[in-house]
Amino acid sequence: MTGPATRRGSGTDRPSAALKQLSALTFDLQTDQPRLDLGPQGKRILKELIAAANAGLWVSVVILAATLVDVCMHESGHFDGISFAGGNGGDGSAGDIEDEVFGLSYLTASERHQLDSLRAHRNALVHYEGPVAGVSGSADDEAALATTAEQALLAILPVLENLERWG
Q1: Model pTM greater than 0.90?
Q2: Cα separations in angstroms, 48 against 21, 51, 96, 115, 131
Q3: Domain ranges of the chain
Q4: 17-26 and 40-55 are packed helices; what angle lies between their axes, rounded to 10 degrees?
Q5: Which of 19, 45, 148, 166 shows its CA 20 to 30 Å from the CA of 26?
Q6: What is the DSSP letter of 73?
Q7: What is the residue-level pLDDT of the chain in tens, covering all 167 positions?
């Protein structure tokens, strides 16, 4: 293994572009006023996602990235100041899909497609239905997983950027 979260096959040990962007968004997670408006579960998953990316644990990166999107959608107090407390499964919630759709309505079609691909990759890894690129036992598994993990990090960036606090 050349090094964690590097661009394998490029001959360098530079951190990936997606990990650099993610690190820039999350550099202050340990402070009292982090830039990202995440709840305790989201913060923990994000910290573990970054650790997994730095360690080159590509399957974990994909699973944690998809999980983080779900947590961001359901933790209260997110997305344009709207509180989803009581929505999406809370005590007074009807469980309407509209709540979830509204939460990602600011994303472009391409960004939504990236999240759909992320979910599909995650599901393929977690719910065995046959060989999956990256864990099929072939010689290029490491490169395939690294590419999928990079795509996973890029897919979650628009969601996290929407959680930035300004001011």
Answers
A1: no
A2: 16, 5, 30, 19, 26
A3: 17-161
A4: 150
A5: 148
A6: H
A7: 334 544 444 433 556 888 888 877 777 766 766 778 888 899 899 999 999 999 999 999 999 999 999 998 887 554 444 443 333 344 443 444 444 445 678 889 999 999 999 999 999 999 988 888 888 888 999 999 999 999 999 999 999 888 887 65
